[in-house]
Sequence to fold (281 residues):
Amino acid sequence: MTTTTKPAAPASTAPARRLGPAALALRQGRLEITQFMRSRESVVFTMGFPVIMILIFAAIFGDEIAPGVSYTQYFITGMIATGLMTVSFQNLGIWIPIERDRGVLKRYRGTPMPSWVWFAGKVLMVVAIGIAETVLLIAVSAAMFDLKLPGTATKWLTFGWVSVLGVTACTLCGIAISSLARTARSGSAVVTPVALVLQFISGVFFVFTELPAWMQQVAAFFPLKWMCQGLRSVFLPDAFGALEPAGSFELDRVALVLVAWCVIGLVLCLTTFRWTTKRDG
Fold:
């Protein structure tokens, strides 16, 4: 996905010296959110695509996949996870190469502003847009497709930590994979196929247990499968856990894998991230 929106220039460095760390991060976060909202393509794709997919699949598939669980309800949990992955992994993996190719990152690097402020701005943008998108998906699904909201504090807590760990892992991996793109145009070509393949093998479009065994094993290496599984434990009946591959929702393993990917993503960011293109040196 490409866009003609011009990335915002680095903020003035004079006021930055008078601001504290929290204020710097918040100001950078507002800048990133504003830049995102000015890109109509990004807003439509990130916010609208999951809703459109729910409407399409709900109109095509209405059968029950288990007692009291329709395919639509199952699909919605996967699209919530996909929405979180889109705003973090996919969005960052596409946008950062654009900023790098246009020299925006190089200019940031040349200012007195600490490098961590730029990363904090990206994180705040992901969190803000991720929350807005999740609220939108849940509202549409509850109003139109009878998605049952979590009925206990424990399930809301599970929803919280699965979302936080999932977004953290996907954000770090999105920053890391952005270094594979050589130019601004190649960012989408690098990231989008990866995101689509993960959706198909992770139980988003199809019931996970109906996928070939080898595909399930491949998906188990990546965070999206575990995000979907964790969210199913929140929005689907407890009895559905018996239909999962291991006979339960395996929330302990969900947490373990997502934490592991947070660590892996952080290591990859620290070792691979580039502020300039290879031709800039």
Notes: DSSP finds eleven helices and two strands in the chain. The longest helix spans residues 71-101.
